[in-house]
Design a protein that fits this description.
This protein is α+β, with helices and mostly antiparallel strands. It has one domain: Gcn5-related N-acetyltransferase (GNAT) (Aminopeptidase). 34% of the residues lie in helices and 24% in strands. It has a five-stranded mixed beta sheet. A hairpin with a 3-residue loop joins β3 and β4. The longest helix is centred in the middle third of the chain and has 15 residues. The chain starts with a strand and ends with a helix.
């Protein structure tokens, strides 16, 4: 039987979590997309003013094998929202119940913090993830499109 623990991440977990993010970028066919450094990632999550929270799945051997990175946002219609930015389980540890346990813990956290919505996005081609979310009972909303502006665009648009 595979044994692992779900727990709140510490600063010492930041490098391993960052490596999972890089692994996810490769899986999502964007291997060069991660420009966030381990140092910035660590500061943003564990510095003086953290802007995200992180839970991790840790193996018996003390290896970080999965993570869920989330933060709070606000819905004008519903109120406080927990936004799951990334749910990642390293490839060799998938299909062992880790993703489900991470999501279960997120729902506990959301309830403890009075979140009215738990929300995330999934790539339309990621059939295994979509099936996983459907099994959980998630509402897959195909009406809304994600809109993004990246750093160079922000820089350009902020000069107006």
């Amino acid at each position: 039987m595979i044994k692992f623990t779900i727990r709140k991440a510490t600063k010492a977990d930041a490098a391993a979590a960052h490596q999972l993010i890089v692994e996810l970028a490769v899986f999502e066919k964007e291997p060069d997309a991660v420009t966030n450094t381990v140092e910035q990632f660590t500061e943003d999550g564990f510095g003086e003013k953290p802007i995200y929270s992180l839970i991790v799945a840790e193996s018996e051997e003390k290896q970080i094998v999965g993570m869920a990175l989330y933060f709070y946002a606000y819905s004008t219609w519903k109120g406080k929202m927990l936004y799951l930015d990334d749910l990642i389980v390293t490839e060799t540890w998938r299909h062992k119940g880790i993703g489900k346990k991470l999501v279960d813990e997120l729902f506990v956290i959301a309830k403890q913090n009075n979140a009215k919505i738990v929300r995330w996005e999934v790539l339309d081609w990621n059939a295994p993830a979509i099936e996983f979310y459907k099994k959980l009972g998630a509402k897959i909303d195909k009406e809304w499109w994600a809109c993004k502006f990246y750093e160079s665009q922000i820089e350009q648009l902020s000069k107006k």
